[in-house]
Amino acid sequence: PTSPTLLLMKMGPKWLPAETGKVAASFLNHIFTFGPIYSFGVFLPPMKADFAVDITTASAINSTMNAAQFLGSLIAGLMIPGRAGHMTVAMQASVAVLAGLLVLSFADQVFLAYPSVIVAGIGLGASNLAGLTALNASVARSQR
């Protein structure tokens, strides 16, 4: 049994290099991780209004997610080399991102926002690192 992601990575015309699927998957991974990582600040005014808090508290939510991204990268860095591969970490991290942002979208009080952005941030950091290192890992050391 082959996973849908493996099939996606193997698809493509025969004239394309074999790594084209990996490059495409890594590119999509970066779109979906860099988007929320670098544009989360645009949600500060709506969060400020929805949670009825000041801008400092809304910014603390964003800062918490940024700190959690570093933790997610650390976790992925420990998992990828020996225990799980890049694809496994990226898929598990995407579930964490989805769960965290889904809970955040339904949060009606500010204290529910913090755990949800921690889960989403850990997932974003782990998925980002998996995408960053996947292509490098597929190239022989002598060719890097």
Describe the structure.
The chain is an all-alpha fold and 144 residues long. 78% of the residues lie in helices and 0% in strands. The chain contains six helices and no strands. The protein is elongated. The two termini are 32 Å apart. The mean pLDDT is 83.
Please report the number of helical segments: 6
How much β-strand is present in the residues? under 5%
Q: Largest sheet, if any?
A: none
Strands, total number: 0
| Content-based structural category | mainly alpha
Mean pLDDT: 83
- The helix content, as a percent range, equals over 70%
Based on CA atoms alone, the radius of gyration comes out at: 17 Å
The general outline is elongated
From the N-terminal CA to the C-terminal CA, the straight-line distance is 32 Å
Which terms summarize this structure?
144 residues; mainly alpha
Layout of helices and strands, plus pairs?
Blueprint: H1 4-10, H2 20-39, H3 44-51, H4 55-82, H5 86-106, H6 110-137
Give the gist of this structure.
The protein has helices spanning 4-10, 20-39, 44-51, 55-82, 86-106, 110-137. The chain has 144 residues and is mostly helical.
